[in-house]
Amino acid sequence: MGERWLTIDEITQRLGVSGQTVRRWVKRFKLPRRLRPRRGTLDAVTVVPWSAIERLLHRRVDNDTRLVPFREAARELGVSERTIRYWLAKGAPHCRAGRGRFFFVVDELREWRKSALRRRRRGNREPA
Predict the structure, then answer these.
(1) Which fold has domain 60-128?
(2) What span, in angstroms and rounded, lies between the C-alpha atoms of 37 and 89?
């Protein structure tokens, strides 16, 4: 069985990102792509292998560090999604993929949480 190739529209529906975001990923990260003839027209559509998109979303940033989606970050840190949203409002490190889709490096988020707790404790001890 061959690899599954999806159109940009199909990818946008699966991920909840804009078509422009997917086109930017294809260009910026040099993802493999093909033109597939559109049925009944002389036009063609761009198709991208789904495995390339998955590798991009879970790519290794360093050696053992990877970008994870919102729910997975909450699960790995043992907190609720609401807590992650609160942290985003407070300036937690993240990568944005459009349409409210966020991706995180879990180790960076863990470090940010530790430093935020230290700042809060320090702030409580200092005289007003």
Answers:
(1) Arc Repressor Mutant, subunit A (1.10.10)
(2) 44
